[in-house]
Design a protein that fits this description.
The complex is a heterodimer of chains A (314) and B (88). With 314 residues, chain A is mainly α. Chain A has helices at residues 5-26, 31-55, 64-79, 85-107, 113-132, 159-182, 184-194, 196-201, 206-232, 242-255, 262-280, 285-298, 302-307, and strands at 142-143, 234-235. With 88 residues, chain B is mostly helical. The chains are: A mainly alpha (314), B mainly alpha (88).
Chain lengths: 314, 88
């Protein structure tokens, strides 16, 4: 199978990401390993959002809640002395999936702006729940005392090991996402986005399909949250504030809605611009905002659309 | 910058039904009353059947959540809001 132009872009970017720790070690700049690990974690979250936003047409404005749930799962488990990574990385997506099941069950009854607002409402509830967890630091957040423990061979306390750990998750999820999108399930999801009434008339129970997609996206974002807790060794309610949901949404739009690799580019562009501009001025958002407007105005599918326009046959 | 007002305004519009001015007016009063009442009475109310410390903890959290719980409940029962504009 010949790679499309977008496939080539994805492979080149992933190869570049794989080389980051080597280059950082050679340039004696270990700071970049952490920065790019952060980029990839948000890329995972953004790709999971794009699965329901781009392919399902469901604009969820509460995606940061799952990031927080995943992070708090790791934080609370290690607070109680359970440091096994296998437990952490099973509980985090399971808890996020359970939350997504409840939230999706209620939210998917509505559509359009109402759907956006109800997902926002739920994420605000989760946020205030986090604030009220006084035992776990409440508003001030919770220090994660130890990294998830995967035995002595995979020591996440080593930044380079953690980096490749995150990288592996990103690659696996991109491949998995590609399969989901091309499967019968994924095609149904896209059909329901383009013509909901017709899919219903054809006899497909689209509510169940959408709920399944919503739960998958939640679980993957929960995993990203668990990775984030391992990277920063700190979780606080601020990682599920609604502005964070907006940031993830912005990464997806910036990179390209409805593309698998676009959100990765979007996350990279957003976070790298943030780190460069923030060094320059504390009002970095004043520069990022107009840039976002320009990208949205001039490219229908974001940065990926600028680099590799969609071939005419789709 | 004005984020809290922005979000509550969205909540009001959605509860009232998007496109309905009468709905926005009534929902604004409703949201204001629920929020203020939650902050004033929820903690003493919870203290009636919980320990003082638990009420001190849960009260303010529930009070901040109250308008979102209201919105979720309204949308669950009436997905178009309380007063959807006619003719659509």
């Amino acid at each position: 199978m010949a790679l499309s132009r977008r496939g080539v872009v994805a492979v080149i970017c992933l190869a570049a990401l794989a080389l980051v720790p080597v280059v950082a070690a050679a340039a004696d700049a270990p700071y970049y390993v952490g920065l790019f690990a952060r980029v990839m974690i948000f890329a995972i979250a953004a790709v999971s959002l794009d699965l329901i936003l781009g392919y399902g047409g469901l604009v969820s404005f509460g995606h940061a809640a799952y990031l927080g749930i995943g992070g708090y799962a790791v934080g609370i488990l290690s607070f109680h002395g359970i440091s096994s990574g296998f437990v952490h990385f099973a509980v985090a997506p399971a808890a996020a999936a359970a939350a997504a099941l409840v939230i999706g069950f209620v939210s998917l009854r509505t559509a359009g702006v109402y759907f956006i607002m109800i997902t926002l409402a739920f994420s605000q509830m989760v946020y205030f729940l986090g604030v009220s967890l006084n035992q776990y630091g409440g508003d001030d957040g919770l220090n994660v005392t130890r990294h998830s423990d995967f035995g002595s061979r995979v020591d996440l306390a080593d930044p380079v090991v953690l980096y490749y750990f995150v990288f592996a998750f990103l690659v696996v999820f991109l491949v998995l996402g590609g399969r989901i999108v091309r499967s019968r399930f994924g095609v149904l999801l896209q059909g329901a986005r383009s013509n909901e009434r017709r899919m219903i008339a054809l006899g497909f129970p689209i509510f169940r399909y959408r709920l399944a997609a919503f739960v998958i996206a939640g679980a993957v974002c929960g995993l990203a949250g668990a990775l984030f807790a391992n990277l920063t060794l700190f979780v606080s309610p601020s990682i599920m504030h609604w502005t964070r949901s907006g940031e993830i949404l912005m990464m997806v739009i910036l990179g390209g809605i409805g593309t698998l690799f676009g959100p990765v580019l979007g996350a990279a562009a957003y976070l790298l611009l943030e780190s460069v501009l923030a060094r320059w001025s504390e009002h970095w958002q004043a520069i990022l905002g107009p840039l976002l407007i320009l990208v949205v105005l001039f490219s229908k599918s974001g940065l990926l659309g600028l680099i590799a326009p969609r071939p005419p046959d789709g | 910058m004005g984020e809290s007002v922005l979000i509550s305004a969205f909540v009001v519009i959605v509860i009232g039904g998007i496109g309905s001015i009468r709905g926005a007016f009534i929902a604004a009063l409703l949201v204001g009353i629920v929020d203020a009442a939650g902050r004033a009475y929820l903690r003493p109310l919870l203290a009636l059947f919980m320990s003082r410390a638990a009420a001190d903890n849960a009260g303010p959290a529930l009070a901040s959540m109250s308008i979102y719980i209201l919105m979720a409940a309204v949308l669950f029962i009436r997905p178009q809001g309380l007063f959807p504009p006619k003719g659509r």
